[in-house]
Amino acid sequence: MHVIGVDIGTQSTKAVLVDAAGHIVAQAARGYQVETPQALWAEQRPEVWLGAVEQCVAEVVRRAALDPASIAGLCVGSLYGGSGVPVDAEGMPTHPCLIWMDRRAEDEVAWVRRSVDLERLYDITGNGVDSYYGYTKMLWLREQRPDVWQRTAQFLPPNSYVNAQLTGEVAVDHSSAGNIGGIYDMAERRWSDEMLAALGIPRSMLPDRLVDSSAVVGGLLAAWAARLGLRAGLPVVAGGVDAAVATLAAGASCAGNHVAMIGTSMCWGTIRQHVDARDGLISMPHVVNGRHDLYVFGGAITAGASVTWFRETFCQAEIAAGAARHVDPHELLEQAARAVPAGALGLLFLPYLMGERSPIWDAKASGAFIGLGLHHGRGHLYRAVLEGISFALQHNIETGARGGQALDEAFTVVGGASRSDLWMQIIADVTARPVQGSDSDAEASLGAAMLAALGTGVVADAKALRGWTRTVERARPEPEACARYAALYRQYVAAYPALRSVMHALRA
């Protein structure tokens, strides 16, 4: 038997078709862009996601050329959709989705801090108050777009929206529900009537059906089956938030395991059974054993996005040279960065290009190069960007360690960063931990396929899923570089408090 896993990401959607042993038979991807109509705004249109899912699934089915009867199920995981997709009574979108990156709801955050019992919110939801969270974005739509609010019947996370289109059935997985923050009771694993009332969000705007990530939502509608080349009635499995799904794909299923997913953003996460919002991390039920385990994470809001910004803003020469030589411009930048010693000759980069999530939680934080001199060139700046994101990772690992849960010495890195030997070595040296990588670049889409296999009985239980994971050591910390980075990291941590007032003044 075979299964299909789909990952709706911020910049692309990927699909894989795998056999019962987890071997990839076919894969496909489609790219798109985030819409940023104003500073600190970030939204995406759900019809773009749906179109990308259709194209990717149809392509892997066509490439695999299998009997549709041999495909047991389909699962869609997705980026954290912030507010979720606001839909009307017919399930049609009423507004673009305000995604995780969007930070427009600062006035609503201030209102929550003034008007809601924060200690109760922390205790019930296991999460905090920030414009990152979906419930604050819902409040923005209520306050700033009352016309949209009036036409909106429900809010659906991206994977739930796609599943509803494919099956006609509406359900929300617990990981996506928990990640909305503010309105989900983490202990009871249900929507919190108390918090909904305190925030003024009608209970009717949240779907009644909450399910495990491996639960079957419904069967594939005949019209969609014809478009995708699949059989009508094919089980569609709920899925979950991409960071947790990628963590599953990386083989993390026990307390103490931890994984960094470094793509557009950076999410470092681990498995726990208890959480305290005051630790400054984000929590949600895990995508496996979610009635017992929590996926607890923190991360930089712009990681790979910082690398992309630097390349597109400052590196036209490398882009042109790469095109002429048929070489990825990142390879040329890395060649220059490898010649630069650890610490980039006293240069620090703060990767706060869209504000910052954990652990500083400041939408008005801004990016900065600190220590610039005439002796610095593009190679130094590029290395500083990689180092700054790695410092942000270490900042979150330290925060997670303070929560009382022992962490494994080694951890796994997945996403774009894992394709760079230089960056993996920097991460090992900054964290002073051995770093592993996966032998597959499928990551979250492979994790979604695992959930499809679990939900349809292709794999008997979650423990068997670990047999799909093949990790290899990519880098070990080098003592001399570790010592240099430890000193520089102290400066990194001190930089934000020192510059906070200036950052806020510039954002005013």
* Termini gap: 57 Å
Average predicted local confidence, pLDDT = 93
Structural class by secondary-structure content: alpha+beta
Low-confidence runs: none
Q: Main β-sheet, in a few words?
A: 7 strands, mixed
Helical stretch count? 17
Q: State the domain count.
A: 2
Q: Please identify which CATH superfamily of the largest domain we are dealing with.
A: ATPase, nucleotide binding domain
The CATH topology label of the largest domain is Nucleotidyltransferase, domain 5
Cross-sheet strand order for the largest sheet: 17-18-16-15-21-22-23
Beta-strand percent range: 15-25%
The dominant shape is: globular
Describe the structure.
This protein is of the alpha+beta class and 508 residues long. It has 2 domains: 2-240, ATPase, nucleotide binding domain (Nucleotidyltransferase, domain 5, 2-Layer Sandwich), CATH 3.30.420; 304-437 and 472-507, ATPase, nucleotide binding domain (Nucleotidyltransferase, domain 5). 39% of the residues lie in helices and 19% in strands. The chain contains 17 helices and 23 strands. A 7-stranded mixed β-sheet has the order 17-18-16-15-21-22-23, with helices on both faces. Strand 17 (282-285) and strand 18 form a beta hairpin. The chain starts with a strand and ends with a helix.
